[in-house]
Amino acid sequence: MNAFENLLHGFGLSWTLSKLIPYIFFPLIGFFVWAIFRKRIARRWVGFSLLLILVFGSFFAYFSVNPIFEGDFSNNSTITTLIPELESKDRPALVIVTIPDCPFCMESILRMKEFKKQNPNVSIEYRVCTSKKELLKPYQEAAGDAFPIVMAKDKDALANDVADGAFPTFVLLEKDKSVKWSNDNFGAGALDEVERAFEETSEKK
Questions:
Q1: Using the 8-state DSSP alphabet, how is residue 145 labeled?
Q2: Number of domains composing the chain
Q3: CA-to-CA distance for 115 and 56, rounded, in angstroms?
Q4: What residues are paired with 173 via a beta bridge?
Q5: pTM of whole model > 0.85?
Q6: Residue 71 domain-assigned (yes or no)
Q7: Which of 10, 50, 60, 186 lies at a C-alpha separation of 20 to 30 Å from 114?
Q8: Strand order in the sheet with 169-173
Q9: Which residue range forms the structural domain that includes residue 41?
């Protein structure tokens, strides 16, 4: 999630559209720039070359800074096995299962902080599979007061039965179901699903 995507989402667009639109928007800007100057270009081949440069150049300039990864638009959730420490949580809730010293887990904190800022009603909690409390500190410093970072009560069950050894794993606990995503499947579509789960709950209250 970059600043432009966050801005689009702030206007009420879904995370999927907010992710997709910039890849269309910047080539269109290149086209409009070409349209302004095309009448001043005498040679057709020069004008056509400029069109290609502006349109494709605008796209690849944005793409080079914000490349599309395999999971960016994905929403491949699966039903998850729950353990007592998750079954007892108030729902809905989004629980992120992590382990100490995991760069992908740390990276996800920055993303979820921005998501939380845009969705203050979403309950987010990080559970770290460790028995050493001091190993939570890097995550706690990164998260600040955005959401709690806690130690797993049953680290082996959480890491193996819920996360299947893949970290971070995102677990959405809803009233009638519980689903999870691995890190490479938690894309814009998954963010939309999490938002909908909390919006539906708010509407029912």
A1: T
A2: 2
A3: 31
A4: 93, 178
A5: no
A6: no
A7: 60
A8: 78-79, 178-182, 169-173, 93-98, 124-128, 149-151
A9: 3-65
Q: Write the pLDDT tens digit of every residue in 180-205.
A: 999 988 988 899 999 988 887 655 55
In this structure, the answer to whether residues 96 and 37 fall within a common structural domain is no
Examine the fold and report which residue of 44, 65, 86 is the final residue of a domain before the chain moves on: 65
Neighbours of 57 (CB within 10 A): 14
SS3 138: helix
**pLDDT, averaged across the chain:** 86
Which residue shows structure tokens 């699966």?
Answer: 78
Q: Which helix (H) or strand (E) holds 98?
A: strand 93-98
The whole-angstrom separation of Cα 159 and Cα 165 is 6
Q: Would you state the structure tokens that stand for residue 1, as one six-digit string?
A: 């999630």
Cα gap 71→116, rounded to integer Å? 20
Residues 135 and 193 in one domain: yes
Boundary of a domain, candidates 11, 41, 65: 65
Separation of alpha carbons 51 and 24, rounded Å? 15
Q: How many helices (H) and strands (E) does the chain have?
A: 8, 6
Which one-letter amino acid corresponds to residue 159? A
